[in-house]
Structures are given as structure tokens and as C-alpha cells.
Design goal:
The structure holds two protein chains of two kinds.
Chain A: H1 4-16, H2 20-32, H3 37-57, H4 63-80, E1 93-99, H5 107-118, E2 121-125, H6 132-142, E3 146-150, H7 159-169, E4 175-179, H8 185-190, E5 195-197, H9 200-213
Parallel strand pairs in A: 1-2, 1-3, 3-4, 4-5
Helix pairs in contact in A: 1-2, 1-3, 2-4, 3-4, 4-5, 5-9, 6-7
Chain B: H1 4-19, H2 48-65, E1 67-69, H3 72-81, E2 84-85, E3 91-93, H4 96-105, E4 110-112, E5 121-123, E6 131-134, E7 140-142, E8 149-151, H5 154-166, E9 170-174, H6 186-195, E10 201-204, H7 211-223, H8 226-231, E11 235-240, E12 246-247, H9 249-260, E13 265-269, E14 272-273, H10 281-302, E15 308-312, E16 315-317, E17 324-325, H11 329-345, E18 349-353, H12 364-379, E19 384-388, E20 390-391, E21 396-397, H13 399-416, H14 423-426, H15 428-433, H16 444-449, H17 464-469, H18 475-488, H19 498-516
Parallel strand pairs in B: 1-12, 6-9, 6-19, 7-21, 9-10, 10-11, 11-13, 13-15, 14-16, 15-18, 18-19
Antiparallel strand pairs in B: 1-3, 2-3, 4-5, 7-8, 16-17, 20-21
Helix pairs in contact in B: 2-10, 2-11, 3-10, 4-10, 5-6, 6-7, 7-19, 9-10, 10-11, 11-12, 12-13, 13-18
The chains are: A alpha/beta, B alpha/beta.
Chain lengths: 214, 517
């Protein structure tokens, strides 16, 4: 039987090869072999996703490759999750996302959600056409670190400041990120958001930076 | 724990990606072939076998998967016409016989009317030319004078109208997204302003279901009444599918109402390859075709005889960032395929972006991308080349870019004019008699034809000394000169009179009151 380092490398390798099924099987074998769960988590799954994150930031990996690696990592996590306590499960932070009221275009929002999950964030997706009071309710219910909202249409952009106002009135203390094709930095600055992500990959970097730097 | 294996793995991964760059991939044979019909200039990117494959897949997708349609009345009408409704009542399956019948019944020509006949454009153009359209939906504006970016405001509509009015390639003008007015009725405000400022054909792009009625009322007023509008539709209307394979209530409503006035429908699909559509272009092309044909069917079933212009606007997701692109080379390939499928495969009129760029400014990339795109689209036989002046993936308009685009359009039109092959074009008599050391400069034949060559007003042909003496003024500066001269010109004739403008303003006010209430 290969030594532990080689076996953890194999999990790591399979995540980088996007082999979800293999990752699940290898993690299951490792659990059955009695390996410390925290070592599997830290030295194989999280280490692989850190590497994926770095490769993505450097432009080596493309969006679908990053997402597929995240899916492979999640397959391993599904084996570990029932065996770990909540405090053992790492999270880069909790993010609530949705498209603003009257906007039903969700591809960008979905992409951001998948990439945040791939980046280790817990994501609560409120879906499309989310009214300001629904964002407020979700903020109260989930206490997210960040709320992210998107708009594809120029006609629905004005629902961003309305939502931000509602969140501020409800004393939401987390950060707010906005994005979407017609959104600009200037717009983001004028409506009281904390940050603007020009694309999905920037959203992940921003979210990490916000929670690291406060 | 970072093993040597992982370090070498990382290097391999980077190496793998570098080795997989598209530039190093071998080309698998050429798809280029002779056009199936001689006479019309252009190229056929796909051969007939491939077009047939796309056609068959499109029919299959419409019949087997179907399209979600969010409009109860339209669904009932479609059912009566032979469409099959899924058990949940929302997905409509279109049997092949119905699709083929509708394609056959759809008018294959239309005249996009201006306010007077002088501005009419018959499609397809009898001489095989295309017309161009200004970019639509832009919310940003590159100021023509300063070159600075800002939000597009109401006064910019007048600038767009002035530029569109005076550029010879612009067949019709679109309304942009206007900031500074209520967002929900911005389309009504923008259209109301535009339609009073141009005698050219205009297009209607509704933002909300309830706005459609007001846009039609304004259009009727500008045309001189409802019957005048039906007789000479001065506008056409875009209906857009919600990719993948869905038609929203607003767009079905736009089709119904526009059809009732006889306005041509630009049946538009906006798939994003890798996002809302397959990343591989044949899949995206088939998806777009199915969506366009579903709108064609709705149009013909609810408004029989209404002209439909197939409008595939293909986008792709940038795999590195997730941003939408309108001018990547894959998009250009997809557009070429879509146009060929729509035109040769289904015999429909076609409209797509023939200009536009993904860069935010009027720069080298912009002019390279739009020149390449324009060539492919024009040579693919599109009837309408849209996107004039648009930048940053159709979200920004630049009047200076529009002027450059117009000149690119002139070049493309000149190129598409297939030369005659006769004694005159061979200059046969001259060729036979040319002496040693002779030239063709000063003779009657050259004199006769010298003004038939395109004389660019924007593109430079200066010697270096002149270029330096003029402080290295470039294409943009030349275009800006033309922009300034256009703004000084008098408005064109045959615009709506003061009384009509007052009536239009009343409709805008009524729309605000009803919709914003």
C-alpha cells in the first residue's frame, strides 16, 4: 500500500484532474483506513483547492476547469461532511447572492455562486427577481458575511440602491458586492455598495480580500 | 505537506495549458467551399451537407425539446395550429410539418419604410447590398468631442439621430438606453425622442410588457396615424428569446402588437456560448435557430403575413473571466454559420451584428474586430449589419466610432459589388494597344471610371511629411472632424411637426403615469 503522502497526493491529483468519482472513492478508502479526517481535509482537499485558486488567479486554469475541480473537491467533502463537526468544516465565509428585483437573468449570478463555492465559500442562492425585503429577510436568517447582487439590465440596476438602502435600514453589518454587465465602478460607488466585481472571477478575489482585510 | 510530486504536477499543469493554446492546434481541413449559388458575392463557410445537419438538428430540437412560452393566449393559438403542449402546459413542441409550413408562409421580402420613400429600404436589396443599423441598448456614451466615457443621456439621442441621419450606410436607427428618465419607461422616452428626430426607419425595443402599447401609440403618431402606419410601417420591432429555449410574455406581446400594425419583427436570439448555450458553436447555432424559428411560428400564427427577420446575435463567455464577448473569433464563426443556416437553410431575411467590439474604447482592437466581423457577416449574406458605433460588448455607443464604421461599411459595399466581365471592364481596346512604357493615367477610360473607386474620408492615405505636418492626426481625429461637421448640419426634412411632437409627449406622460404608478 502506498504511504500516506502518496495517497493524499492521489486525491490532490484527482481534484486537479476534475475526477469527482475518483476523489470520492479515494477519500472513502482513506476514511476506512482510519486516517485523521483533518489531515485528509487539510492536506488533500483544501490544499488542492488552494492550488486551483492560485492557478486560476494566474490565468492557467479557465472558469469551467476551476468549477470542475471544485465539484471534484465537493465529492470528497460529501464523504467527510457527515463525519466532521461543523467547526471542523472550513468556510471562507458565508455569501448570500441573487439577481435584483425584476431581473431574471441568472447566468452571471450562477457563475459567481459556483466560483465562490469553488473558492470555499458557503453560498446561499436566493435565485432571480429578488425583492429588497427578500434580501433583508435572508440577511436576518443567514447572517452572511457578504451579500452579492447582480443585474443584467439597465432597467433593473436602480433596484440595487433600493436593496442596499433596505439592507442598511435593517442594520445589515456585512459587506455588499454588486456586479452585472451594465454595472460600473462609478455606479457602485454612488449607491453605497462596498465593492464592484467586473466579472465572476473578480468576485471571488474581492470576497476573499474583504473577509481577510475587513 | 507539499510533496515534490505536487510541485512537478503544478509545472506540468502550467505546461499542459501552455501547450494547449489554440494557436498551436492544427486546423482540421478547410470548411470553405464555393457558394451554392453563383452570382451573389460572398463565401459559404459551410457546405450543403453541414447546413442540412444544422437544419435537421433544429427541427429535432423544436419537436423533441420544444420551447417554453409564457403567454397563455399564444399557447392556445399555437395548439390549435398543430403545436403539441407538454403536460405542464408550458413547453410547446413544434412538429416539423408546422415549422416547414410556417417557413414557407413567411414573407421573404419586406420594405423597411422611412417617413418618406426616399428613406425606404427593400430587403433583400435588389443589388445584393446590405444596410447598417446603429447600436442599440447602450447605456454608456463616449463623448464625440472629448472622447470621455459617461452615462448616456437624453441629449445624446439627438446626437445619435444626427449621426445616423447623415451617414449613408445607416438604413435605420435604434434607440439607446437613456439615463436621467424613469428606468422602467426609458424605452418609451428614448424612442419618443428618436422618432421625432429622424426620417429614417427606426426600431422599437420594448423593456417591459406594459410599455409595448405606448411605444406603438407613439409610432402611430409619428407615422401619421394607425392606418398610415399599417400602410407604411416606419418602425420594426425586436422580440428576444430568453435563452435557452424560452419566450417571455413581453416578447410574445411585442410580436402580437407589432404584428397588428404590420411592423416587421426582428426575431432575435442572444445565446452565450459556454453560458446559456453550448460552448461548441454548432450547438449554439442550432439553439439560436430553434429560438428564432419559434418566434417565427408565433409571429405567423398570431399575425399571419408579418415579415420576420432572423436575428441571431451570438455571444460567447470568456472562459478566463466569465465576461460576455461579441467579437471573439468563435463568435464570428458562429455568426457566419447562423447566417448561412438562416439564409440558405431556411430562406429567411437576416440581421446580426456586423460591427462592434469587446474593447471599451475606440482603439486599434475595436477597429480590427469590427472590420473582421463586418467582412464575415457581409460576405455571409446578411441583409442588415447592426452594431454601428457600439463598444464594450454592445453596452456603449461612440458617435466617432459610428463614423469609422460607416466608412468600413462603404468599403464592404464596394467589395461586394461584383465587377462586370466585359470589354469595358477588361479595358480590352486599351490593353490590346498599350505601347511599351505606356500607362493608363490620362485616357478616357480612366477618366470615366476614376470616381467609381472608393474615396475614404476617414482612413489615411497621407505621405509621412503630411502626416507629421498635421501633428500625426489619425483616423479618430478625421472621424471627429466629420462628427463636428454633422452636428452643424440642418435637421433633415419630413420630421414630425410640433403638434405631433406635443401628442407624442402626451403619450410619454401617460405611459409614465400608468406604468410608474
Amino acid at each position: 500500500m502506498p504511504d500516506l503522502e502518496e495517497r493524499l497526493d492521489a486525491i490532490y491529483e484527482n481534484i486537479l484532474d476534475y475526477e469527482a468519482k475518483q476523489v470520492a472513492e479515494l477519500v472513502k478508502s482513506e476514511v476506512e483506513a482510519g486516517t485523521d479526517l483533518q489531515i485528509i481535509l487539510d492536506d488533500a482537499l483544501i490544499a488542492a483547492m488552494d492550488e486551483v485558486g492560485d492557478l486560476f488567479s494566474e490565468g492557467v486554469l479557465f472558469v469551467p476547469e476551476m468549477l470542475m475541480a471544485a465539484n471534484a473537491m465537493k465529492a470528497g467533502m460529501e464523504i467527510l461532511r457527515p463525519l466532521l463537526t461543523d467547526s471542523d468544516i472550513p468556510s471562507a465565509g458565508k455569501v448570500v447572492i441573487g439577481t435584483v428585483h425584476r431581473d431574471i437573468h441568472d447566468i452571471g449570478k450562477n457563475l459567481v455562486g459556483m466560483m465562490l463555492e469553488g473558492g470555499g465559500f458557503e453560498v446561499i442562492d436566493l435565485g432571480v427577481n429578488v425583492a429588497p425585503d427578500e434580501f433583508v429577510e435572508a440577511a436576518a436568517k443567514h447572517s452572511p458575511d457578504i451579500i452579492g447582487m447582480s443585474a443584467l439590465l439597465t432597467t433593473t440596476m436602480p433596484n440595487m440602491p433600493k436593496t442596499i438602502d433596505a439592507l442598511h435600514k435593517a442594520n445589515f453589518e456585512g459587506k455588499i458586492i454588486i456586479g452585472g454587465a451594465p454595472v460600473t465602478l462609478e455606479f457602485a460607488e454612488t449607491i453605497g455598495s462596498d465593492a464592484y466585481a467586473p466579472d465572476a472571477s473578480a468576485a471571488v478575489v474581492l470576497a476573499r480580500g474583504m473577509l481577510t482585510n475587513g | 505537506m507539499v510533496s515534490d510530486m505536487r510541485r512537478s504536477r503544478r509545472e506540468r499543469k502550467i505546461g499542459d495549458k501552455a501547450n494547449k493554446s489554440p494557436q498551436t492546434q492544427p486546423v482540421k481541413g478547410s470548411s470553405f467551399s464555393l457558394p451554392p449559388t453563383l452570382g451573389a458575392p460572398g463565401f459559404a463557410f459551410l457546405d450543403n451537407t453541414r447546413i442540412d445537419q444544422l437544419r435537421e438538428r433544429t427541427f429535432s430540437l423544436l419537436e423533441e425539446h420544444g420551447v417554453f412560452i409564457d403567454h397563455e393566449e399564444a399557447v392556445k393559438t399555437l395548439k390549435k395550429a398543430g403545436a403539441r403542449i407538454s403536460n405542464d402546459g408550458k413547453r410547446i413542441h413544434f412538429p416539423r410539418f408546422l415549422v416547414e409550413q410556417v417557413i414557407e408562409d413567411t414573407p421573404k421580402s419586406v420594405t423597411l419604410c422611412g417617413k418618406t420613400e426616399e428613406w425606404d429600404h427593400a430587403l433583400p436589396d435588389p443589388e445584393g447590398r446590405f444596410i447598417m443599423r446603429t447600436g442599440t441598448g447602450a447605456h454608456g456614451f463616449i463623448d464625440g468631442e472629448t472622447g470621455n466615457y459617461r452615462k448616456l443621456k437624453m441629449t445624446d439621442v439627438a446626437t445619435i439621430a444626427a449621426v445616423g441621419n447623415h451617414l449613408d450606410q445607416i438604413g435605420f436607427i435604434s434607440h439607446p438606453f437613456v439615463n436621467g428618465v424613469p428606468e422602467r419607461t426609458s424605452d418609451i422616452h428614448g424612442f419618443a425622442e428618436l422618432v421625432t428626430l429622424t426620417p429614417k426607419h427606426v426600431w422599437i425595443q420594448p423593456y417591459e410588457t406594459e410599455n409595448v402599447e405606448y411605444l406603438m401609440r407613439i409610432c402611430a403618431l409619428a407615422a401619421g396615424g394607425e392606418s398610415a402606419l399599417r400602410k407604411r410601417p416606419i418602425a420594426s420591432c425586436i422580440a428576444t428569446s430568453f435563452t435557452p429555449l424560452e419566450l417571455k410574455q413581453m416578447d410574445v406581446e411585442a410580436i402580437i402588437q407589432a404584428s397588428s400594425y404590420g411592423l416587421a419583427i426582428h426575431a432575435c436570439s442572444l445565446p452565450t456560448a459556454g453560458g446559456t448555450a453550448p460552448i461548441t458553436m454548432p450547438g449554439t447555432v442550432v439553439l439560436a435557430a430553434a429560438e428564432i424559428l419559434s418566434m417565427l411560428i408565433v409571429t405567423q400564427i398570431v399575425g399571419s403575413g408579418t415579415a420576420v427577420i432572423a436575428t441571431p446575435l451570438i455571444f460567447a463567455l470568456d472562459m478566463r473571466t466569465g465576461r460576455s464577448l461579441q467579437s471573439s473569433i468563435e463568435v464570428m464563426q458562429g455568426v457566419s454559420m447562423s447566417l448561412q443556416l438562416m439564409k440558405q437553410g431556411f430562406g429567411l431575411l437576416t440581421h446580426t451584428y456586423g460591427s462592434g467590439s469587446d474593447t471599451p474604447d475606440v482603439d486599434s482592437q475595436s477597429n480590427a474586430e469590427r472590420s473582421l466581423l463586418g467582412q464575415l457577416v457581409a460576405l455571409s449574406g446578411a441583409d442588415i449589419l447592426g452594431g454601428v458605433g457600439q463598444l464594450e460588448c454592445a453596452t456603449v455607443f461612440s458617435p466617432v466610432q459610428a463614423i469609422i464604421d460607416n466608412e468600413i461599411g462603404q468599403m464592404l459595399q464596394s467589395f461586394l459589388r461584383t465587377p462586370d466581365m466585359d470589354d469595358e471592364s477588361f479595358a480590352w481596346d486599351l490593353l490590346k494597344e498599350i505601347p511599351q512604357g505606356g500607362n493608363f493615367l490620362a485616357n478616357q477610360h480612366t477618366l470615366k471610371h476614376c470616381r467609381a473607386t472608393l474615396d475614404p474620408q476617414v482612413f489615411l492615405r497621407q505621405a509621412r511629411d503630411t502626416y507629421e505636418a498635421e501633428n500625426r492626426r489619425n483616423v479618430q481625429e478625421h472621424a471627429r472632424d466629420i462628427f463636428r461637421s454633422i452636428l452643424k448640419k440642418d435637421p433633415l426634412a419630413n420630421l414630425p411637426d410640433e403638434a405631433t411632437i406635443r401628442e407624442i409627449k402626451k403619450v410619454v406622460k401617460a405611459g409614465d403615469a400608468k406604468i410608474l404608478d
